[in-house]
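Action item from last meeting closed. Structure (180 res):
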């Protein structure tokens, strides 16, 4: 039987591993998140390079922003720093992410000087890169309109994952254009 840990212990462990990975101590692990449905571009399971990912936080209260696109979830105050929050599933054309106890914010853009966060269904923890097998490029059929989509991978359980290229996402004009 697997050892049960509290949510607090899990988040502390994940945070420590993210910090050590940024220092180059983490090996080859990727952060796994779940967002949207399988039929959306990229599917529902995503892998993010730890160097490009930030903190994963429980969903705080969001302040709505008027005259913004429906996928712009609002502004979040995380320890005194304001983050623009994008519902990643809705941004890709899917249904809005349900707001519940599993919903998370993935803070991104610190390396690029951007305070942005992705609203995702849930964080799935770190995934060993060595256990992933490349299955091709998800952009096949989408052309170069989605440079933020990376390669596709299968894990040991044959679950399909898509790499999310954070720098390309933050540079995407559609991601940056939140005004109606």
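Sequence:
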């Amino acid at each position: 039987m697997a050892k049960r840990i509290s949510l607090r212990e899990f988040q502390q462990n994940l945070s420590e591993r993210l910090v050590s990975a940024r220092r180059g101590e983490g090996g080859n692990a990727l952060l796994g998140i779940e967002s949207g449905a399988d039929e959306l571009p990229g599917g529902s399971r995503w892998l993010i390079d730890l160097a490009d990912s930030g903190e994963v936080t429980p969903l705080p209260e969001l302040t709505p922003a008027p005259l913004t696109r429906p996928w712009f979830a609002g502004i979040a105050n995380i320890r005194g720093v304001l983050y623009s929050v994008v519902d990643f599933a809705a941004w890709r054309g899917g249904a809005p992410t349900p707001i519940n106890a599993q919903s998370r914010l993935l803070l991104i853009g610190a390396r690029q000087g951007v305070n942005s966060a992705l609203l995702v269904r849930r964080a799935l923890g770190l995934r060993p890169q060595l256990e992933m097998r490349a299955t091709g490029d998800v952009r096949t059929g989408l052309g170069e309109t989605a440079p933020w989509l990376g390669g596709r991978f299968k894990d040991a359980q044959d679950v399909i994952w898509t790499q999310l290229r954070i720098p390309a996402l933050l540079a995407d004009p559609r991601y940056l254009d939140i005004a109606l």
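Note appended to the action item: The CA atoms of residues 22 and 51 lie 5 Å apart.
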